[in-house]
């Protein structure tokens, strides 16, 4: 599994490079690469988790998934390398001699065909990777709630959302670029006078990457606001407890004993509304 994670680690910086203006990607290809970069960052986080499990304790579905991810990583890397080399070759066309001026139109047509082919390969790799993520969505529980056996002892299953809150964002390859893209989406065209609420969904298969990425965004922008809170929500949440956690994070002094409160959901919502009145928050 370390080989698969290594393939992903090599690919992510190349995708970031591919997004630079010098490569002049078509809009739909550029958007696909951005989406794929975020998806592969999540995949890489899951692969690192899977790599910690002894090979004989992984089921066949996980092994097949990891193998497929590795193949797509190599295909995407090859297509990206070929495209970048072609662009760099085009920028070094040689001196302006009569012979070169005669050759250039023919070479230019030939390169356009090759460039189109390489762009098509990149687009195909993007589609294949995105399809893979959708097909493997059913394995979400297998990654997030994996119970491992070691020396005859079974470790307790821990809610992955909890462990994700304490993962160092720097451990995730490519997270800086994904974080900046999300921040740009959140703040682009922002009119502070309107204070419009924006919601962004970070989707993908199970693993700590999504929560860690969301936390990285929150930590980067929270200083720009009057107050903020970051809470993790399970599939069957205790709504009262979530509201209490939010209030405590918003003002730790005022709501120091909020957990002892017997207020119901409506009362807690009213408290949140009153506290957030006329405040900017992420």
UniProtKB/TrEMBL annotation:
Presence of keyword Repeat: yes
Residue ranges of domain NB-ARC in the record: 179-281
Any one GO molecular function term: ADP binding
Keyword Nucleotide-binding included in the entry's annotation: yes
Leader peptide range in chain numbering: none
GO biological process: defense response
Origin: domain of life: Eukaryota
Coiled-coil features, chain-numbered ranges: 122-149
Family statement drawn from the similarity comment of this UniProt entry: Belongs to the disease resistance NB-LRR family.
Protein name, per record: Os10g0124400 protein
Organism: Oryza sativa subsp. japonica (Rice)
